[in-house]
Amino acid sequence: MQPARDLFSYRKYWAARLTPAPVLPMSRAEMDALGWDECDVILVTGDAYVDHPSFGMAVVGRLLEAQGFRVGIISQPDWTSTAAFTALGRPRLFFGVTAGNMDSMVNRYTADRRVRSDDAYTPSGEAGRRPDHSVIVYAQRVREAFPGSAIVIGGIEASLRRVAHYDYWSDTVRRSILLDSKADLLVYGNGERQVVEIAHRLAAGEGIATLTGLRGTAFVLQQWPEGFTEVDSSAIDEPGALNPPVDPYSHTTPLSGGAAGAACATGSKAGSPGENVVVLQRRVPKVDRSHSVVRLPAFEAVRADPVLYAHASRVLHLETNPGNARALVQRHGDRDLWLNPPPLPLTTPEFDRVYELPYTRLPHPAYGDAKIPAWEMIRFSVIIQRGCFGGCTFCSITEHEGRIIQNRSEDSIIREIEQIRDKVPGFTGVISDLGGPTANMYRIACKSREIEAACRRPSCVFPGICPNLDTDHSALIGLYRRARAVPGVKKVLIASGVRYDLAVESPEYIRELATHHVGGYLKIAPEHTESGPLGKMMKPGIGSYHRFKELFDRYSQAAGKEQYLIPYFIAAHPGTTDEDMLNLALWLKGNNLRVDQVQTFLPSPMATATAMYHSGRNPLRRVTRTSETVSIPRGLRVRRLHKAFLRYHDAHNWPLLREALKRMGRADLIGNGKHQLVPAWQPAGTGRPAGHRGTTGRPAGTRSAPRRARPGRPSR
After folding, report:
1. Alpha carbon 305 to chain centroid distance?
2. Which of 352, 366, 407, 549 is most buried, with most CB under 10 Å away?
3. Is there a single domain that holds both residue 469 and residue 585?
4. pLDDT tens digits, 637-692
5. Same domain for 144 and 228?
6. Other C-beta atoms within 10 Å of 81: how many?
């Protein structure tokens, strides 16, 4: 694997002679004030424009500005016509289109498919300011307004819908978003490397159709690339019965290009009249991985066959390590979608420079005094790392940001804290978070770069912590100590979720955390207590939680502080039975816990648990026609029941729970005893069906985007 070109080594475009814009323009008047006759790049986003490094479009915009390009922003445009999309004119190079920091469907709908009443990324939290499937709608409006302009889509929505994917809200398998949006190029994962090279190459006169070799991009294949060897996905992971051996005396001509994969995807049998013959076998010759491409089953095949969908999901997840991932290709009708391998992680110096660009850290002045909840939540927080090697199946961080942790330097983080202290209005001396997707993965990595580059495990910590993982927390402890010593800083809190199975490897870290960095409550996510659902989530057993709690309570008491853990749990996750939820409810009651942060599993695009939900198969293991099936809590009633078990203390849920306990043969748990779950009596004015009180909580499976309590994580 060749090292990536330094992000800041490109010769700057001519507009670098201009001073950085006070804020990237959102109107012609602002362009005129800057002396611009046109923009080089226009970014269209479904979020309000906040010039802060937790907002993806701000990072992309400021990075392109640092490369010498003039960048404009069209934020939350009215999509019912093309008028809003013409506000800044036609860009010289390209339009960049994103739904924002969250998938637009996750942003707008609950796990019960109800419309949310607010939107944290909109001024005043107003709902309804973005369309469903925003990337598709925005890109099509741009194409209508400016035919012939280059359109590049990216962000979390494009990233997680880059191949044929299950869409929970329509209960269908949809095509790649690149085809439905009719864009020219799709950027997936963190997009800094891709967008910088795209901009420079277009500025040098190349056409958008020629940009086919960029890592972290997908495009519709026009011509099969020279020198690439195709490997059928069934040769990597068997989706059904093996093909019969090829008869060496047969006159059948081997298939080439897309035909072999199409035949596999449609389940053709060798020698069937009128059908293609599959000649690729499980045992394939060794080929140069950098010049091989894995053919996934076609869109039409995975749409028709859930087993093939699970197989395709498994193969895709096996090809996510940038050190060894191969390109992927998938047929959609008469066209091939080509996905290049994932982008290479940013180095620490690159990461530092990206986060130290001249952000105002404020919403655009056009919003006036309107509050943007996502910004209010994160304006005093600092991102210290990116990526996650946990591999939780309901989460999309790994699919988007990757599992290799990218770290900022300690000096860069301290400089940002000082900037917050000196420049952000309303700072009271409290840094609300030093974190990222996970609080305590800073500078934790594989002990060997060679092993890391060759590894194909989906998680470094499941079913146990990999012996090659260096779990030393000393760098993070040192950062915490230095951060709280910054003059003017009274307190540094940790609000990102702590990975407790890692934390117990470093009791000193837990001591530091409990003594100095918890404001009374610390959120933590055991997600469940039972081995069945935990295995499907790729989460550690509940024993790790108990070990962490024991240390946390001990060090909190030693510090003279009364502090509590706030646990998160998931209801209705694939692999969860009614009995599992009952046991979880009994555990909660036995530990005197009443959970208010209720979360019901939401099948987000591309997540492994979503493939389980749709297919009923377990893609964590080899998928075959007879492989392990997974119990799926489907339907509104069973999902509400599982959520009701989590909120066993809510009287509105008692009628539903009594009915379920009787059906399960556990009527002995109905009564007023300490060992019983729900009383036999019902308070007046209660008893409405579970779920009617708006306790939908945060959507599980959206951790590439934040938990509902923590908006603002980057998604480029």
Report:
1. 25
2. 407
3. yes
4. 999 999 999 999 999 999 999 999 999 999 999 999 999 999 999 998 887 654 44
5. no
6. 12
DSSP assignment of 208-272 equals: GGG----TTEEEE-SSPPTTPEEEEGGGTS-SSSPPPPP-TT--PPPP-TTHHHHHHHTT--TT-
Would 2 be classed as within a structural domain?
A: no
Q: SS3 sequence, 657-702?
A: HHHHHHHCCCHHHECCCCCCCECCCCCCCCCCCCCCCCCCCCCECC
Whether residue 396 contacts residue 185, with contact meaning beta carbons closer than 8 Å, is answered with no
| CB 186 within 8 Å of CB 177 | yes
Question: Which residue's structure tokens are 């006070």?
Answer: 22
Domain extent for 256: 217-341
Q: Is residue 577 domain-shared with residue 445, that is, in the same domain?
A: yes
pLDDT digits (tens, 9 = 90+) for 129-151: 999 999 999 999 999 999 999 99
124: in domain: yes
DSSP code string of 563-600: -EEEEEEEES-TT--HHHHHHHHHHHHHTT----SEEE
Residues 249-270: tens digit of each pLDDT: 333 333 333 443 434 444 333 3
Least Cα distance to 570 among 688, 375, 395, 334 occurs for: 395
Q: How far apart are CA 104 and CA 134, in angstroms?
A: 6
Verify cis geometry, omega within 30 degrees of 0, for the bond prior to 77: no
The model's pLDDT over 416-449, given as tens digits with 9 standing for 90+, comes to 999 999 999 999 999 999 999 999 999 999 999 9
DSSP-derived pairing of the beta strands 521-527 and 433-435:
unpaired
3-state secondary structure (DSSP) of residue 349: helix
